[in-house]
């Protein structure tokens, strides 16, 4: 079965600790997708899928913490702007979760697609700057 979000090799930063966490977040989004696709259409807020979204929120929080610690340890100059971006991403995810909980949004393919781009556009692509910085040293 084709995965909802397929990892691409050019997303590797070459920083093992961060890469492993990114792979794990991609896997979690795939688990959310699997859960959403297999749930029956009447139950809009399937507990299993929602539990995985909350897990994604928790693990993202930890990932951002670890990534910021890594950046500080390596004296990455843009750590404060990257931190602001992380805060914004967490706020976006919290908003999305609140909308689902309040019944304003369904955990459906459209929401899954938002989650997918939330992860790859920001979380992975902007982290490429960290890789570039590490390579330039
Ligand atoms: Fe990251």
UniProtKB/TrEMBL annotation:
Signal peptide: none annotated. Keywords: Iron, Metal-binding, Oxygen transport, Transport. Residues 14-127 form the Hemerythrin-like domain. CDD domains: Hemerythrin (cd12107). It comes from the Bacteria. InterPro entries: Haemerythrin_Fe_BS, Hemerythrin, Hemerythrin-like, Hemerythrin-like_sf, Hemerythrin_metal-bd. One of its GO terms (molecular function) is oxygen carrier activity. NCBIfam families: bact_hemeryth, hemeryth_dom. Belongs to the hemerythrin family. This is Bacteriohemerythrin. It comes from Candidatus Thiodiazotropha endolucinida.
């Amino acid at each position: 079965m084709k995965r909802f979000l397929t990892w691409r090799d050019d997303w590797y930063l070459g920083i093992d600790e961060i890469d492993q966490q990114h792979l794990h977040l991609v896997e979690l989004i795939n688990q959310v997708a699997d859960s959403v696709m297999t749930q029956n259409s009447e139950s809009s807020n399937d507990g299993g899928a929602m539990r995985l979204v909350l897990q994604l929120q928790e693990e993202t929080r930890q990932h951002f913490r670890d990534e910021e610690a890594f950046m500080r340890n390596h004296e990455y100059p843009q750590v404060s702007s990257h931190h602001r971006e992380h805060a914004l991403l967490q706020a976006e995810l919290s908003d999305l979760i609140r909308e689902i909980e309040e019944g304003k949004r369904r955990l459906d393919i459209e929401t899954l697609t938002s989650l997918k781009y939330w992860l790859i556009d920001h979380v992975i692509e902007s982290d490429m700057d960290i890789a570039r910085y590490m390579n330039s040293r």
